[in-house]
């Protein structure tokens, strides 16, 4: 397995592998301590000689020495491993942070370019009567009108401009462009007489 800090980026499975190894070492340390406990409770520092300086005969000296030695080695391994786990986690988090920042920057750039590409509206639909030509064409309340036939933000002066276009286009489809929910939408609208007032509703 590549060490953290090697040429290959650290993966989640690398970290999981390190954590499994750490758990194994901890289990081995525990087993060694249990062995010391079984030997009349000698820990890491109790003397292995009696009052007269002779090796104690009530415990298995070889087992105790081996267990103590193993504990020291395993604790060193454990320490080194914990450092590796920490480094690996740092690398993973740093990569996540980088990716998150990149995604945010991309989303922002996309939103900016969309805003720039949206044309300016000159009027807003505040009512659409059900059953009217406007309603049938799919025009919706809060649609912002960008183009209405030949009328756009550059030549629009008043709603009279739209009324004039509507009167001249009775029975003929008009191209209407609106901004709806931040997107440009084209609506085909045919002004005509209906049960209500006007040619649009």
UniProtKB/TrEMBL annotation:
Gene Ontology cellular-component terms listed: cytoplasm; nucleus
Pfam families in alphabetical order: Nas2_N, PDZ_6
Source organism, top-level taxon: Eukaryota
Keywords linked to the UniProt accession: Chaperone, Coiled coil
Signal peptide from the UniProt entry: none
Residue ranges of every copy of the PDZ domain listed in the record: 90-182
GO biological process: proteasome regulatory particle assembly
Coiled-coil portions: 71-115
Keyword Chaperone tagged: yes
KW Coiled coil (keyword) present: yes
Quaternary context: Interacts with PSMC3. Part of a transient complex (modulator) containing PSMD9, PSMC6 and PSMC3 formed during the assembly of the 26S proteasome.
Family, similarity comment: Belongs to the proteasome subunit p27 family.
Summary of the function given for this chain in its UniProt record: Acts as a chaperone during the assembly of the 26S proteasome, specifically of the base subcomplex of the PA700/19S regulatory complex (RC). During the base subcomplex assembly is part of an intermediate PSMD9:PSMC6:PSMC3 module, also known as modulator trimer complex; PSMD9 is released during the further base assembly process.
Protein's UniProt name: 26S proteasome non-ATPase regulatory subunit 9
Organism: Todus mexicanus
Lineage of origin: Eukaryota, Metazoa, Chordata, Craniata, Vertebrata
């Amino acid at each position: 397995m590549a060490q953290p800090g090697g040429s290959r980026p650290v993966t989640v499975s690398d970290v999981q592998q390190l954590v499994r190894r750490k758990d194994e070492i901890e289990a081995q340390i525990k087993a060694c301590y249990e062995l010391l406990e079984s030997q009349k409770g000698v820990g890491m520092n109790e003397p292995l000689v009696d009052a007269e300086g002779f090796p104690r005969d009530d415990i298995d000296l070889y087992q105790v020495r081996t267990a103590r030695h193993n504990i020291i080695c395993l604790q060193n391994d454990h320490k080194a491993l914990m450092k590796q786990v920490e480094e690996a986690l740092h690398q993973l988090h740093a990569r996540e942070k980088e990716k998150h920042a990149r995604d945010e920057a991309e989303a922002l750039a996309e939103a900016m370019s969309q805003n720039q590409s949206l044309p300016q509206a000159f009027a807003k639909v505040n009512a659409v009567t059900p059953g009217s030509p406007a309603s049938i064409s799919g025009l919706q309340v809060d649609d912002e009108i960008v183009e209405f036939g030949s009328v756009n933000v550059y030549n629009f002066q008043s709603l009279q401009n739209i009324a004039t276009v509507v009167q001249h286009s009775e029975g003929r489809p008009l191209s209407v462009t609106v901004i709806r929910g931040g997107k440009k939408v084209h609506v085909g609208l045919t002004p005509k007489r209906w049960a209500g007032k006007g040619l649009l509703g």
